Amino acid sequence: MNSAAFVLIAILILAAALAAATLQKLMHATLSFAVALVGVAALFFLMGAEFVGLVLVFVYIGAVAVLIVFTILLTRRDVGKDQGVNWLGALLAIAVFGGLTWAVLKTQSVAIAAPHIRALTVKRIGEALMTSYVWPLQCVGLLLTAALIGALVLVIEEKRN
Amino acid sequence: MSKFADQIFVNAKQWLLSWLTTAPGWLVQIASALLNICTLLAVFLTMFALMSVLERKILGRIQNRYGPNRVGPFGLLQPVADGIKMLIKEDIVPARADKVVHFLAPILIAATAILALGIIPYGRNMTPFTIDGGILFFFAIGSTTELAIFMAGWGSNNKFSILGAMRAIAQMISYELPLIITVLPVVMIAGSLTPDRIVAAQAGYTLGVVPRWFAFTPWGATAFLLFFISGLVESNRTPFDVPEGESEIVAGHMTEYSGFKYATFFMAEYIGMFAITGLGATLFLGGWHSPVQALEFIPSYVWFFAKLSALLFVYVWLRGTLPRTRIDQIMNFAWKFMLPMSFTCVIATAVWHYAGRGLRGWLWSLAVIAIVYTVLSMLLDTQRKFAPRVYRFAE
Predict the structure, then answer these.
(1) Which of B10, B104, B152, B257 is deepest in the core (most CB within 10 A)?
(2) Do A31 and B148 contact (CB within 8 A), yes or no?
(3) Is the pLDDT of residue B73 over 70?
(4) Which residues on A lie below 8 Å from B143 (Cβ)?
(5) Under a CB-based contact definition with an 8 Å cutoff, are residues A110 and B179 in contact?
């Protein structure tokens, strides 16, 4: 059953990604991109990493997709007039794909389903974050706060009269 | 006897599944999931119908009139009439609309609203979808609603629609922060993101009288109030219904929807309301636990739905009595008051925990919240005197 589900989800992801790359309207491409992310989250669920899947939905669909959509809406007037092939982008995509394929093929084969791995519960992730990874967590928190304040400083218009 | 009544639905499901003993495991799994989904849909769609007529009747009482009373006994068949009307109405799609996005938006909104219902424990052993990070699932699903609302606004290709969607997304993103941070204290004390464990942490009675619900601690009461207000905003209800303020922007993101698509939006709003109040009851009001020890013989799901109905009544009551707030007031309230207060709740919870979870902790956390509230309200008070509003982008 799991392999059937994997095939279905993989087809969904590939179709959505293809649509995101080829659709004429930018907004449609963004929405297809969101669908592809849902598929990736479903893959994480299938592997039992529920927390990662949920965070993916939370951050990428709830925040990043909305951000992209707003950026498109607020920056360009001619949404829908993006035609022709971007050769540089195609070259970059092929390069990334080649690099990934090379890395995957070079990796020594590992047992995909190790039977004795404990389930990745939220509790274990929380414990790891609060004990061995507490300094990286704090640094990331500081960085994000700085980014937030920086964004506010850039956006705010002081009204002086 | 009481145990039998309490577990009647669980046993009924087990009995139905026992027909499939010879079937392979995955078939039983799918059948079990389908049974849960069908029950959930049946219960909550009935509740939606009931709620729509009861809301109109209660609003009628508040405004000193009768409300619907023509169709069926006491007007109870009104939702049936409304449903038939909505089904046979003409479905108009604007010529310049983006057909696909316009079509998909109501479906996505309804789907996310219904999915969020799945993780709430409706009674003892009655959680449709048990998952390790249930609370996180609820908010992850809830955050996709914003994209759906944007699709509705943008797909309609109408200025009112896009403005309504922008307003809705702005206030939903702002209030998602206090909403999630007020859940944090409960997760800290229960030590789990699973709704069942959170309900279990609220079992028992202090001195045999006061139930150990989180709403009866100072931090819990404050967090519950903040959660309730944020829930009002998330479900776009009065007094926070500026996204569909009919006196300004027709119906917001729903302007270009007619017939059954409009009914779907309406349904999604109500289902979302049930989900957020259900989560509130689970987190702060003890879930399916009885408020009085002597009444524990009453089935657990009865208690849950009693709490849900009480909270929904407050929703209707507020709608009947409060005027609509301005969008800048909503934003100011979110960032200047709700957010600091919800952080205070987190600190007060830590104080409560480290002062021994008893009377001493109770008093200390109350002191923390009272001090922060006083200082915050003094600061906000001195900053803003009554003055004419300054417009930045208009004359």
Answers:
(1) B152
(2) no
(3) yes
(4) 57-58, 61-63
(5) no
Contact A54, B137 (CB under 8 A): yes
Cα Rg of chain B (Å, integer): 23
User: In angstroms, what is the C-alpha Rg of chain A?
Assistant: 20
In chain B, the DSSP E strands lie at 205-206, 210-211
Identify from B119, B146, B175 which residue to disrupt to test chain A contact, counting A C-beta atoms within 10 A and taking the largest count. Answer: B146
Tell me: pLDDT of B388 over 80: no
Residue of B nearest to A55 (CA): B140
Query: Distance between CA atoms of B256 and B261, rounded to whole angstroms?
Result: 10
Query: In Å, how far is B210's CA from the nearest CA of chain A?
Result: 30
Residue whose structure tokens are 């139930």 = B211
Query: What digits encode the pLDDT tens for the residues B150-208?
Result: 888 888 888 888 888 888 888 888 898 899 999 999 998 888 888 888 888 888 787 77
On the question of a cis peptide bond just before residue B239, with omega within 30 degrees of 0, the verdict is yes
> Residue A110 — pLDDT band, cuts 50, 70, 90?
low
Of B144, B136, B48, which Cα lies nearest the Cα of B104? B144
Structure tokens at B75: 């007007």
Strand segments, DSSP code E, in B47-204 are none
Distance from CA of B63 to the nearest CA of A (A): 39
Neighbour count for residue B343 (Cβ, 10 Å): 16
Contact residues, chain A, for B132 at CB < 8 Å: 50-51, 119, 121-122
Nearest residue to B47 (alpha-carbon basis) of B360, B233, B309: B309
Respond yes or no on whether ipTM tops 0.90: no
Q: How many CA atoms lie within 13 A of B302 on its CB side?
A: 12
Whether residue B132 and residue A122 make contact (CB cut-off 8 A), yes or no, is: yes
- Judged by phi (left if over 0) then psi (alpha if -120 to 50, else beta), residue A80 lies in left
* Amino acid residing at B232: L
Q: Given CB atoms, is B193 within the 8 Å cutoff of chain A?
A: yes
Among residues B328, B169, B324, the alpha carbon closest in space to that of B161 is found at B169
- Torsions phi, psi for B324 (to 5 deg): -80, 140
- pLDDT tens for residues B274-328? 999 999 999 998 888 888 877 778 888 888 999 999 999 999 999 888 888 888 7
State the pLDDT at residue B309.
Answer: 92
CB contact under 8 A, B143 and A50: no
Determine the Cα–Cα distance for residues B43 and B5; give it in Å rounded to an integer: 18
Residue range B97-138, pLDDT digits in tens = 888 888 889 999 999 989 888 889 888 888 888 887 888 889
Pick from A34, A58, A121: CB nearest B140? A58
The string of pLDDT tens digits covering residues B4-30 is 777 778 788 888 888 877 777 778 888
Residue B261 Cα distances to A85, B86, B159, B253, B379, angstroms: 37, 9, 19, 12, 46
By the 8 A CB rule, do B193 and B133 touch? yes
